[in-house]
Amino acid sequence: MLNRSLISAICRQGVVYPTFVKTMLPGPLELATQLIDAYRTAAAQHQTAAELEEYTTPLIDGASNRRLALALRKLLDERSTFSSLAEIDFPKLRAEVLEHSAKLLQGNEALPEVGNWRELLQQKIPDNPLLQEGQLYADLPENDCLLEFKDLNAQQLLNRYNLALVQGILLTARHLDIHLATADAPRLRRVFKYLRFFQLLATVETEAETPDDSLLRMHLIVDGPASILDQSKRYGLQLAAFLPAICSVERWSLEAEVTWKTHENAMLRLTQDSRLECPYHNFAAYVPDEIRLFHQHFQEAVPEWRIVGNTPFLRGEGREIIFPDLSFQYQDGTLVHLELFNRWHANGLAERVKWLETHPEIPLVLGVDRTVASKPDMQAILEASEWFAQYGFLYRDYPTCDRTRKALQKRLEVRDER
């Protein structure tokens, strides 16, 4: 993520315009190539951060757009893994070395030659690892070595820079008003997986098809960090991380009210014509640990049910769309879906429970995080709901297999009674 000082944008008549770089211009491409080559070399040779900075500083100082150069280096730093020696107590061991050095200086014996000083200290404190060459101040950031660099080409780096400009501005958004249109249903489904993965608050509705095409159209209102009182900084980062998913759709538009410098109610408007690119090509291959462990444990503990990979959309109230977190198939083919409400995805819980009470045929069960259920108004709603008493359950952080199984079985019991 780019710092505010590295974001290039202007505000005219209340509208924020990010200063995108043209990714095919020779100048920016050459600068990006030179910086990437520096990181590749540093990773191959395990250079220190100080050595890498010494090499890249002249490139940055000589660039025609210094802010762009600094921003590109920041993005490359985020793709780099530097050595960490946190397991060693450097302050304590360093104090031991300095203490014994001071004792040598205070003694009456003749001081050893400079080259023999370390050997003499090793006789006094043989187990101190900082007496090795160059280790005394190895914990300073400039002495960290570049161990790994996630490679990319110059055009990809410039595309990530353009994306990072918008992400930085969105950190102050009140909300995101998003319109999506695509003929690719799986692509649209992946967008909602991102929405759930980043735990964002959103209202989703379908839009009518136009006569000239048969695209699937969705309208999303996603709350921004400025509307979240609890952990708004973290929520803002997750909102910014969601942006690339929007850019993966063929047709999209985004409008957000943001704060930019002295402009508190500025508007940011973007469409697919902004040519922002989604870097999440392998997102489907990544599964968070808590979800992976749940899948594994559920498969072992509840063999009569299996988790279905393709979770469908469910029609909600009016044009609203419900996108379950997980779908389960019973051994006879029956499908039941699970929707989770966590501390951020909680605004629509009361409406969802009320709607499900009037639509008991919907094959859906609800899991509610205890941090949400503990709020007095929400606690009263859940305790008063007969539907939730049957088909809902509480969890902490992530549902357990046992509570999930019991809720699924309740749906089967209702089906059998009919």
Description of the structure:
This protein is α+β, with helices and mostly antiparallel strands. Helix content is 42%, strand content 20%. The chain has three domains: 90-138; 158-282, Alpha-Beta Plaits (2-Layer Sandwich), CATH 3.30.70; 289-417, Trna Endonuclease, Chain: A, domain 1. It has 14 helices and 16 strands. The strands form four sheets. Strands 1-2-9-8-5-7-6 form a seven-stranded mixed β-sheet. The chain has a five-stranded mixed β-sheet with strand order 10-13-14-15-16. Strand 1 (9-12) and strand 2 form a beta hairpin. Helix 1 (26-45) runs parallel beside helix 3. The model has no long low-confidence stretch (mean pLDDT 84).
Stated plainly, the CATH topology of the largest domain is called Trna Endonuclease, Chain: A, domain 1
N-to-C terminal Cα separation, in Å?
Answer: 54 Å
**Strand portion:** 15-25%
Mean pLDDT: 84
How many H/I helical runs?
A: 14
Strand count, sense and barrel status of the largest sheet are: 7 strands, mixed
Uncertain residue segments: none
Could you say how many structural domains there are in total? 3
Radius of gyration: 28 Å
Q: What is the level 1 CATH name of the largest domain?
A: Alpha Beta
The beta-strand count equals 16
Task: Outline the secondary-structure elements.
Blueprint: E1 9-12, E2 15-18, H1 26-45, H2 49-61, H3 66-78, E3 80-82, H4 90-106, H5 117-124, E4 146-149, H6 154-170, E5 175-182, H7 185-197, E6 202-206, E7 216-223, H8 232-247, E8 251-260, E9 263-271, H9 289-301, E10 305-308, E11 314-315, E12 321-322, E13 326-330, E14 335-341, H10 349-358, E15 364-369, H11 370-373, H12 376-384, H13 386-391, E16 392-395, H14 401-417
Parallel strand pairs: 2-9, 14-15, 15-16
Antiparallel strand pairs: 1-2, 3-4, 5-7, 5-8, 6-7, 8-9, 10-13, 11-12, 13-14
Helix pairs in contact: 1-2, 1-3, 1-6, 2-3, 3-6, 6-8
